[in-house]
Amino acid sequence: MAKSRLFFRAKGFSMVELLVALVFTTILMAGLASVFKASLSTFYTSGEILSSARRNRMSIDLLGDDLNTAAMYLTDLSVPPPVVPTNPPFYIIPNVLIASAGTSDPQRTDELYFYLDQPVPFEANLDGAAPQQTAAELLVAEKAAVAADKTFTIECHKDAYVKQIKAGQVILFKDDWEPAYIESVKPPTGTKVNVTMGTDPLAQMTGAGSAGLPKAKHLPFSGVVFIQPAQMVRYHIEMLQLDPQNAAGVPCLVRDQGIYIGTGFVPQQPQQIITENVSGFKVYVSANSGVGWAGLGMDASVTGFSDGWDLGIRTDLDTQLQNSGRLNYQTTRGSEHWFRSIPTLVRVDVTTRTATQRTEYSTTPGTAAYRDFTQSLVFVPRHSGLTMN
Question: How much is the mean pLDDT over the chain?
Answer without folding.
Answer: 85
